[in-house]
Specification:
globular
């Protein structure tokens, strides 16, 4: 399990279809057995810098579609 505030990179699994080969750098809010609950990393140039971890509601990245890279 990843710690709250940890920054990780996740990549789309082959199940991801059109998302296949995509990666995202995220800031963990919580990790469950089924999903990463996280914010897009605002320091990643590929992500919007409008996300404010701790202020904005985090997104859910289901583990059937995303894995740690």
């Amino acid at each position: 399990m990843k710690a709250k505030g940890e920054v990780i990179t996740i990549g789309a699994t082959s199940y991801g279809g059109c998302w296949d080969h995509n990666t995202h750098r995220i800031v963990i809010a919580e990790e469950t057995s089924e999903a990463f609950i996280a914010w897009p990393d605002p320091t990643d140039p590929h992500c919007s810098n409008n996300w404010k971890p701790g202020i904005d509601k985090p997104l859910s990245y289901p583990k059937f579609a995303w894995e740690v890279r």
